Amino acid sequence: MKVKFFAAALFIQALLMQTAHAELLIELVGGRTDAVPIAVVPFQMTGSATGDSIDKIVAADLHRSGQFRPLPVEDMLSRPTRASEVNYRDFRVLGTDYLVVGNVEQMVDGTYKVSYELHDVPRGVKLLSETYQPSPAQMRDVAHAISDRIYEQLTGVPGAFSTRVVYVTHSRNATWPYQLQYADADGARVQTILKSREPIMSPSWSPDGKKIAYVSFEGDGLPGIYIHELATMQRKKVSSFSGINGAPDWSPNGQRLALTLSRDGNPEIYVMDIASGKVERKTTHYGIDTEPRWLPDGQSLVFTSSRGGGPQVYKLDLRDNSVRRVSFEGDYNARPAVTPDGRFLTYVHRRGGKFHIAVQDLKRGTFDIVTQTDMDESPSVAPNGSMIIYATQYGGAGVLEAVSIDGRIKVHLPSKEGEVREPAWSPFL
Amino acid sequence: MRAFSLDRIMALLLVALLAACSSQPTEDTTAEDTTAATSTESEAVAPSVPVKPQTSSIPLTADNFANHPSNYDGTTDTKVIFFTFDNSAVPAAAFETLRAHANYLKGNSSAKVRLEGHADERGTREYNVALSERRAQSVEKFLRVQGVSASQIEVVSYGEEKPSAYGHDEMSWAKNRRVALNYTAGRP
Question: A129 and chain B: CB distance < 8 Å anywhere?
Fold first, then answer.
C-alpha cells in the first residue's frame, strides 16, 4: 500500500514536470532522491538562431538519465554564458553541484559555432570546454553529443544520448497497420522505415549500427527474415524456410545471425552465416527453443526453451552445442537480453499472472524484478549498459518505458503512433 | 488448480451435453423415425442430417469458450477453432467441424488450406509464435489423420501479432487463442 502511494505521488510529480518541460519526451515516473543537482543555463544565441534549443535538449537528456536533477531556469540567480561571467556563489546557494554554460553563434556560411563549458560549482573549476561547428540540421546531434560528454565526465560511463531506437507500431485501422520506426533515443525525429499490411517483428541491430534485421510477414503472409540497410534503405530477404523464420539476433562480429527456424517441424536455434546464407542447427529438443541472444564473447547464446516444462532461459555454448539452464526463479522466464559487458541478463518474468522485467546478475547470482507494471516485454539494453528499454501497456495501449539496471530509475516514453512494441536500442553510432 | 479442474469439468459437461443432443432426435426426425420403426423393413429411411446442439442454456464464458458448441456448426462454414490457455490440443467440440473440413479437402484435391495459428497477448512474442505453431500443427495432425494430403495443408503461425479481439481481458484472450482455416484455393 505504502509503495503504491509512493509511486502515485511520483507519477503526479512527473506530470507536473512534463508540463514544465514541454520538450521532454520522456517522463520520470520513478526516480532516485540522490540525483545530482546540475544547472544548464540557457545558451546565448547570436545571429538568427533557429532550430532546437541545445540547452533544453541537454537538460532533458541529463534529466532522463535519472542521475541528474536540472535546476529550473526560473530559479537561476544569474545566467552566465561563458567562464568569465560565472559567479559560483549564485549556484552554490542553490545547492547546485555542476554548471553548464554555452553560446551559439551563427557563422557567415550558415553553420553554427556551439561552445559550452562544464563547471564544478563547489570547487569552482572548469571541467570541460569544447566547441562544435554544426549545420542547422545537426543542432540536435550536437546537443546529444554534449550530453554524452558531460555524462561521461561526471559518471565515468559513456553517455548513450546520441544513440537510436527502432520499434514496431501497430495501428489496426490504418492502411499500413504495421510499421517499423526509427527514432533518436529520446523519441525525437521519428522516421518510418517500413510499412506493411502484415506483422513486423523482432528488430535487431547490426553491431555497426548500419543495418537492422527483422521478421516481416509481408506479401504472402508468411514469415521471412530481412536485412535492411539504413543508409540506402536496401532490403534483402535472407531467410524464408518452411515454418517459423523468427527472432534474428546479430552476432558481435556482424557476420552471423542467430535465429529460430521450425523447418524440421519444431522451433530450434540456428546460426546463419550472412555472407553465404548457410544455416547450421544448434539445438535438438522436442520442446520450443527460440529467442536467441548472443553473449559478448560471440561463442555462446542465451535463449528461451520449454525443455524443462515452462519457458526458461538457457545458455548454449556454440563450441560444443552444450546447453545449461540459467534462470531458476518462477515458472516463466523468457526473451533474454544481455548487457554489453555480459554481466547482467534481463528477461521477462511471470509472477502471479503478471509479466515483469527481471535482471539477473550472472556474477553474483542475484535476481531482481525491476518493473511493477503487468504486461512488460521485449527488454533491450542501452549500449552503455545503464538502462533497459521495454514495452508495456499503459491505459490499454502499448507504450515504451526504460528502467535502470538496478531498477531505481524509470522513464516513460509517450507514444504518438498507436500501439508501440519491441524496442531495440542501437549500439554506439 | 481450481480453475483448471473447473475447466475440465466444464469441458466434460459440454462433451456430455453434445452427446446427449446428438442422440436426441429433433422434432422433425422423431416423426419419421416413428414411422420407420412401425413400417416394414423395406421402407426407405431419411438419412440423418447433422444436428445442431441446443446451446442457449449454456452461457458462453472465457473458460468454456474453446469447447463451446456454439462456436462450431459441424460444417466447413466454421473456419476458426479455439484453444484453452497454454494448450494446443484440439477441443472435442471442434472434431465434427474438422471432420467436415477433412472430407471437403479429400473430395476436392485442388483445394488448399492455410492453418493460421494465433496466441493471446500474454507471454513473449516469439515464444507465442512457437506456441501458436503448435496449435496449427495440432489441427494439421487432425486433418492428416483423417486422410487429407500433406500437400493441401500449409501452416503459418502469427503468435499474438494478429488478434481478432483487442481487449485485455479473459474473453478477448479466449477469442484470440485460435487456428483459422484459410482456404487459399478451392474455398468451400
Answer: no
Query: How far apart (Å, rounded) are the C-alpha atoms in residues B116 and B112?
Result: 13
Residues sharing a CB contact under 8 Å with residue A239, sequence separation 6 or more, in sequence order: A224, A225, A245, A248, A257, A259, A261, A272, A279
Strands A200-205 and A235-239: unpaired
The string of pLDDT tens digits covering residues B108-167 is: 999 999 999 999 999 999 999 999 999 999 999 999 999 999 999 999 999 999 999 999
Give me the amino acid identity at B77.
Answer: D
Q: Give per-residue burial for A338-354: e unless 16+ CB within 10 Å, then b.
A: bbeeeebbbbbbbeeee
The count of residues in chain B is 188
Look up residue A302 and give its three cell numbers. Answer: 542465451
Cell of A44: 546565448
* pLDDT level of residue A279 (50, 70, 90 thresholds): very high
- Taking a C-beta distance cutoff of 8 angstroms, is the pair A116, A130 a contact? yes
- pLDDT tens-digit series, residues A244-276: 999 999 999 999 999 999 999 999 999 999 999
- In this prediction the ipTM stands at 0.90
pLDDT per residue as tens digits for the range A89-134: 999 999 999 999 999 998 989 889 999 999 999 999 999 999 999 9
Residues 6+ apart with CB under 8 A from B166: A172, B172
d(CA A177, CA A171): 5
Is A338 near chain B, with CB under 8 Å? no
Q: What is the phi/psi pair of residue B134, to 5°? A: -60, -40
CATH topology of domain A35-155: Rossmann fold (3.40.50)
Burial A237-269 (b: 16+ CB within 10 A, else e): ebbebebbbbbbbbbeeeebbbbbbbbeebbbb
CA distance B95 to B8: 17
| Orientation angle between helical segments B95-107 and B125-145, nearest 10 degrees | 70
Q: Report the C-alpha gap between A326 and A315 in whole angstroms.
A: 6
Q: Which of B127, B133, B137 sits opposite A304 (nearest CB)?
A: B127
Cβ neighbourhood burial of A172 (10 Å; 0-12, 13-18, 19+): exposed
Full set of structural domains in chain B with CATH: 62-185 (3.30.1330.60)
CA proximity to B19, closest of B77, B96, B88 = B96
Q: Which of B125, B162, B166 to mutate to test the interface with A (most CBs of A within 10 A)?
A: B125
CA distance B14 to chain A (A): 27
Q: Confirm if A53 and A142 have CB atoms less than 8 A apart.
A: no
Q: Is A83 helix (H, G, I), strand (E, B) or coil?
A: helix
User: What is the spatial distance between Cα A367 and Cα A364, in angstroms, rounded to a whole number?
Assistant: 9
Q: Which of B113, B127, B155 to mutate: most A Cβ within 10 Å?
A: B127
Per-residue confidence (pLDDT) for residue A425, from 0 to 100? 98
Closest CA to A344 of A333, A334, A358: A358
- Report the CATH number of the A164-425 domain: 2.120.10.30
Return the half-sphere exposure (C-beta side, CA atoms, 13 A cut-off) of residue A94: 23
In chain A, domain spans: 1-31, 35-155, 164-425
Contact (CB, 8 A) for A170 and A218: no
